[in-house]
Amino acid sequence: MASQMPVVKSYKYSTYMYGGVFWNTNYIATGSSPMQLKFSPLMGNLYYWKNSNGKQGTIIKDQSMIISTSANYSFTSGPIGLTYPIVDNPNNPKNVTIKLSYKGAGVGVTFPLGSNNSISNGSNASWKLNKQYTDFLNKNGSDLDAYYLEGTTNITGAGKTTSVSSSATVKIGALYYFGDIPAQDVIFTDSFTIPSFTASVVSE
Prior knowledge:
The chain is mostly beta strands and 204 residues long. 2% of the residues lie in helices and 62% in strands. The chain contains one helix and 16 strands. It has one helix at residues 43-46, and strands at 7-13, 17-23, 28-29, 31-41, 48-50, 56-59, 65-77, 82-85, 95-102, 105-112, 117-120, 124-129, 134-135, 144-155, 161-177, 184-202. The strands form two sheets. Strands 3, 5, 6, 7, 11, 12, 13, 15 and 16 form a nine-stranded mixed sheet that branches. A hairpin with a 3-residue loop joins strand 1 and strand 2 (17-23).
């Protein structure tokens, strides 16, 4: 299962995507704590599209996908946490894995790190998946519910309050069926900021 962490700290419904920050607790513990960025396509906003002539097309889901995701997760004030995206080998990372959920069934997909895909550790952690190609429908015909970028944060400063902000740019490739004219491929780019939030730093 591609499971969602239980506490949503902040979220944003943008034009074509939902983005949320999830933790295991309302607070962040000193030492190492997990974090999760969840992204879901808003199919209600993608299902129909009108071309330049005003003709409405319907999305062909099995030929539409998430092309790329670029996301940032930053500690901006108070104790500053350092976040490390999950990779295969922290000492010599070669791959980053994201989790996909199709109608509750989870799967991990691995991307090689290099010119097309990269991660960055630190107070402003980032994931850049330039060739993601996550299908809206899997081979069993199940819809993409969400995908997750995950990491761990190390922080000190128990008893204080920290602030976190996140943002993302997601590129979507959608194919639309019009019936009496050829199908048309459309690229949507959705850039959005997930509202900042504060949290207590607690010693554990």
